[in-house]
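Task 17 of the worksheet. Students: predict the tertiary structure of the chain below and write it out as structure tokens. Keep your answer in the requested format; marks are given for formatting as well as content.
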Amino acid sequence: MAVISFARGVPAPECLPVEQLADCARAVLERDGRTILNYGPVGGYPPLREWIAEQHGVDPGRIFVTNGSLEGLNVVLSLFAARGRILVEAPTYDRPLKVAARLGAEVVAIPQDDAGLDVEALERELSRDSLPAFLYVLPTFQNPSGRTLPIERRQRLVDLVHNHDLAILEDDPYGRVRFSAEPLPTLFELAPDRILRSSSFSKVIAPGARVGYFVLTPEIAANYEAIAANVYLTPALVGQATVYEFLARGNLEPNLARVCELLRERRDAMLAALDRELGDSASWTRPEGGYFIWLDLPSGVDSGELLARAEAAGVTFVRGSDFFVPGGGGESSARLAFSFVSAGEIADGVARLAELLPVAV
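Model answer:
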């Protein structure tokens, strides 16, 4: 029996523009090979750095192109870990939790509701005697919940930045993978001189290129460069130059439209399967984009125990507790990724899960 994975938050192979990237790689090696095969500036391939800076309306010195966004997140978290407690959403992307634990940082979770980060709960946390060092937030198609923070809460977050001198990193790898509704302004667009921003070309071009980036304030940029220079001697310039060539040729928007259509079909297939198989016995998010759906299981169902039985039945997911600080929740929840699997696999996999759950009375 083939295993159906709802655990893999990665693009399906058919999402990857292989032929176009191969042609771009060949072109940049022939044209600029003596540069991109050598050591280079720690901030990244200059033409790509300038392209990103122009997109965000900032000086290129505020841009750092990284080997995937997680590399940069390690550096940014190391800058803030010694300054005080780090705030995260509950649930949140699991990798920053692991990085913060490795750094010995104090992590405080701010709850979500159906609209995302509970800004009133955040404000209560900010009223404590000492201010936190940092808030890490994914406002758009959040990993793991798929939720999107509405404009009113985005505005309130920006107010808190100004009123409390709060540092925020807006992580936005999924924002352009949108299936419906109009885009909201990013936190960075609302406060470009105060908000730190990270993103990646992994979801809109290819993760194997390993090209992420950060938009930093001038002060943080200087500190970042000092640390990064001692972490790696040079960025992965071949991948960065290949991505730049892809962008310069105008390939991004057509590729993004193709990827969004492929993933929209998978999102729709998973929502339909959940509606059909689970009915009123569970609840789940209905994301307007991204890769993930958050499933709240029937009362009393332990997702860790369910996962063990599901794996035996040939279907996998990520248990919800992995996205909380230890002991912080998620025991009856699961993250389902629809990005890697076909519509047929989604229907089959959700049916297998439904067979393992108690029948609603």
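Marker's comment: The mean pLDDT is 95. The radius of gyration is 21 Å.
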